[in-house]
Amino acid sequence: MHFGYYRFPMIPLWREQMLDAMNRYVIESLKLGDSDKIVYDLGCGLAAPCRTFAKMYPEKKVKGITIVEWQIQKARELNRQKNIDGIIELILGDYTNLPFDDNSADAAYALESACHCPGDDKAAFVKEMMRVLKPGKKFAIADGFLKRPSEKFYPLLKYCYNEICKGWALPSFPNVNGVVEQLKLNGAENIKVTDLSFRVAPSVMHAPFTVVSFVLKKMLQGEKLNSVRIGHLKACFLGLFMGMHRGSFSYLMITGNKKS
Ligand SMILES: C[S@@+](CC[C@H](N)C(=O)[O-])C[C@H]1O[C@@H](n2cnc3c(N)ncnc32)[C@H](O)[C@@H]1O
């Protein structure tokens, strides 16, 4: 799951539409041509972006990789329901050690997944992505990014940041300067950073309602929330506060290509 992309005249209350628009936005940014056949989704989750890809490009192939086994099973089930099994290949693996050959992808993207890589500059993720991309081919990384080191945050912001990382099981958010530096070191060019914070804001505003309705549902079912779930839900609220600090944090998409 990821945040949605809002564009007028969408209805901001319609979350599914914004989620699909985010998938499309990221995939469109790759500007795939007729000769581009194989695309990698690095950190594919339940493969919602792969399913959007399959609708947009039924003649191409997307290989989604995730490190969580149950996500593969669930994603395969969802793909079967949509009858798009052939276009999507799902692989259990680590994007810091990809089971793909050098120069094998016509494009690659990571939607809210690079943040799970250790280190603010996400070096291990960037290195692997650049290794598997064919020369000249494009990439897109969309995520929440730090614009300055978290050590420089004032105490309340630092507390919220740490709680968000804990709640969402993130080692740290990517630092935009660190990631751009790594991309350059690993042979990327034409690097462009686009701020999507306002596009994403309407879907971020869904968080409190989604959290409250989830908690109420669980209470009505007589279920207790465990500490992992509480941490996750707390992070959703704190994310709103964090998002207001535009000088420190933004939702960005970084695009570019590997040098020919
Ligand atoms: C927030 S989810 C986003 C999922 C998907 N990109 C989407 O937008 O719906 C983050 C995903 O990154 C995956 N992930 C985290 N670390 C990974 C790693 N080292 N290798 C592969 N996948 C990883 C998680 O398993 C999860 O599927």
List the helices and strands in order: HEHEHEEHEHHEHHHE
Oligomer state equals single chain
Compute the number of helices: 9
CATH superfamily of the domain at 15-146 and 169-198 and 246-258: Vaccinia Virus protein VP39
Given the helix and strand composition, which structural class is it? alpha/beta
| CATH architectural type of the domain at 15-146 and 169-198 and 246-258 | 3-Layer(aba) Sandwich
* Low-pLDDT stretches: none
Describe the 3D structure.
The chain is of the alpha/beta class and 260 residues long. It has a domain at 15-146 and 169-198 and 246-258: Rossmann fold (3-Layer(aba) Sandwich), CATH 3.40.50.150. It is 42% helix and 21% strand. The chain has 9 helices and 7 strands, in the order H-E-H-E-H-E-E-H-E-H-H-E-H-H-H-E. The chain has helices at residues 15-28, 48-56, 69-82, 123-132, 155-167, 176-185, 197-204, 206-220, 227-243, and strands at 38-42, 61-66, 88-92, 105-111, 133-146, 188-195, 249-258. A 7-stranded mixed β-sheet has the order 3-2-1-4-5-7-6, sandwiched between helices. Strand 1, helix 2 (48-56) and strand 2 (61-66) form a beta-alpha-beta unit. Helix 1 (15-28) packs across helix 2 (48-56) and helix 5 crosses helix 9. The longest helix has 17 residues, at 227-243. The protein is globular, with a radius of gyration of 18 Å. The two termini are 33 Å apart. The mean pLDDT is 95. Bound molecules: S-adenosylmethionine. S-adenosylmethionine binds at residues 1-2, 43-45, 48-49, 65-68, 71, 94-96, 111-113, 116. S-adenosylmethionine (SAM) is lined by residues 1-2, 43-45, 48-49, 65-68, 71, 94-96, 111-113, 116.
